[in-house]
Amino acid sequence: MAMPADTNQADAYLATKVLTASPAELRLMLLDGAIKFCTQGRDALEKKNFEGCYNGFSRTRNILVELVGTMKPEPNPDLYNKLSALYMFMISRLLQASHEKNVVKANEVIDLLHFERETWVMAMQKAAQELKGTNVNDPLTAALTAPAQSNTNRPNAPRAVAHPGLAAAAGDGFSSVSFQG
Q1: DSSP code of 75?
Q2: What are the structural domains of the chain?
């Protein structure tokens, strides 16, 4: 069966977006995907659709593994260790949520993912401000100086700095973590 033209266009758009994105933008896209799939898994769990739950949580875990795999410990090994531990905690929590059919644990992961995303957006904005002063004219500078989008669908969500593990990441040391492109 042929795929609808809209699906093909959406796939082509996404492929172009991924191929032209900076490493910082790719990381943001991965976080958005993790939030989307974890939410889908949680929603499926609430409806007792265990196959949908498995699919959503599996895709989220795959993204988290990718995020860990693309980080480099240098130049900030302490932050690398904290973020790796956070991602591994989220993976463990997803496994527990799935095994125990526990929506509360799934919600914890979704909240942590939102914290991480908001923190990353703040770091991108801070890096963009720092780069504006250098007058560097390259694609990364352009990408970082573009306004980042935030998820406004969660008006009651705590701010990223409310999470102690991520609060330090919003400080000066965060911009020194590098990701493989």
Answers
A1: S
A2: 22-175 (1.20.120.340)
